[in-house]
Specification:
Length: 179
């Protein structure tokens, strides 16, 4: 008999945001894409990076360069950024590969695994695609949340409770000057 705990997808998927976003249980996910020409890697950050301020966006790009972050769909580079009150915010820089549907699915699944046990994931990853990309991203988030282990009756970590999808505009009350 399989206990239902491992089969719980994220509690809710919202477009927009609740009023209190930045707390210790929140994970942020920002998209990036990578191009390689003549052995040189160039990275482009997607929407949302400037919410953290221009210096932070530059630091995110520098982190991708220094670590030679992967160009594979769903690859995640983790950065800890100091929020407005000095609290650490976990930021997951997530590769979208070439931006095909399967890339959004892979990014969604990778983020679901990386955000397990957290209260909230705020992401602008699907903002780089169309409605079909959004469907692929949510499918990846849902499938990546499942954890089945033979002989194990309970999940080791709960899926992220809430996923907030943001476009190019961040939620009201949050702006680059706040950080």
């Amino acid at each position: 008999r399989i206990h239902p705990d491992p089969l719980v997808p994220p509690g809710s998927v919202l477009i927009g945001a609740p009023s209190d976003l930045a707390d210790g249980s929140t994970v942020w996910a920002l998209p990036y894409q990578c191009d390689e020409a003549d052995g040189e890697l160039t990275y482009t950050l997607g929407p949302g990076a400037t919410w953290f301020g221009d210096e932070a966006a530059d630091a995110f790009l520098e982190t991708l360069l220094v670590t030679r972050a992967s160009a594979d769909s769903g690859a995640i580079t983790t950065v800890v950024h100091r929020g407005p009150d000095g609290e650490p915010l976990l930021v997951l820089l997530t590769c979208l590969g070439t931006g095909r549907g399967q890339d959004f699915r892979a990014a969604g699944a990778a983020l679901a695994r990386a955000a397990k046990g957290r209260q909230r994931l705020i992401t602008s990853v699907p903002a780089l695609g169309d409605d079909s990309a959004l469907i692929d991203f949510v499918a990846g988030m849902t499938l990546g949340s499942f954890a089945l282990r033979i002989g194990q009756l309970r999940a080791t970590a709960r899926p992220v409770a809430e996923v907030v999808l943001c476009g190019t505009e961040w939620p009201a009350g949050l702006h680059a000057g706040a950080v």
